[in-house]
Amino acid sequence: MSRRLVSILFEYFRSLTDLQIPIDNSLQVLLIESLVQQKAYFQLLQFLQYHVVSDSKNLACLLLSLENLFPAAHQLGVDMLQRLPDATEEITEVLLSKQQILPSLRYLSSMGMEKTTRDLSSRKYLELARLTNNDSLFCSVLNFFDIRKNE
């Protein structure tokens, strides 16, 4: 039944796309969940690669949550977030959830956000660095915020 559902959804998406009608997000979620249920990960990868499903924060979060079933889904979710114009905060949170504190700060710097983001919490980053028990990491994070404060 699930394979048939995927085929029907795919054809429906193709028809909607041909008519330039936006595809409802809940149907895209249904497609992804059906593919995961079938363990059709290669097909899911192809649908994402060829933009059969639209980029959205909701779908990116769904992909991130599928990491235990399909490890590549995490990177696919991050990639989808990166294609969205307003997902900087979500990307930094994903990086922080993986204990990637310095990459999170580098990402913010590369986006020019380290000076303009008011809610960039030095306390949050310093606390996460402290919890790693890595003195070098803590000093690097502290240095990042000291430089930022003095600019």
Mean pLDDT: 89
Q: How many DSSP-defined strands?
A: 0
Question: What is the tally of helical segments?
Answer: 9
Residue stretches low in confidence (pLDDT < 50, at least 5 long) are none
What portion of residues belong to β-strands?
A: under 5%
Strand and helix order: HHHHHHHHH
N-end to C-end Cα span: 60 Å
Instruction: Outline the biggest β-sheet.
Output: none
> Whole-number radius of gyration?
19 Å
Approximate shape = elongated
Q: Number of folding domains?
A: 2
Main structural class: mainly alpha
Helix content: over 70%
Word description of this protein:
- The protein has 151 residues and is mostly helical.
- The protein has 2 domains: 1-84; 101-150, no CATH class.
- The protein has helices at 2-18, 25-37, 41-49, 57-65, 72-83, 88-97, 101-110, 122-131, 135-150.
- α4 runs antiparallel to α5.
- The model has no long low-confidence stretch (mean pLDDT 89).
List the helices and strands and how they pair.
Layout: H1 2-18, H2 25-37, H3 41-49, H4 57-65, H5 72-83, H6 88-97, H7 101-110, H8 122-131, H9 135-150
Helix pairs in contact: 1-2, 4-5, 6-7, 8-9
Domain Mic1: 3-149
Protein name: Mic1 domain-containing protein
GO cellular component, one term: Mon1-Ccz1 complex
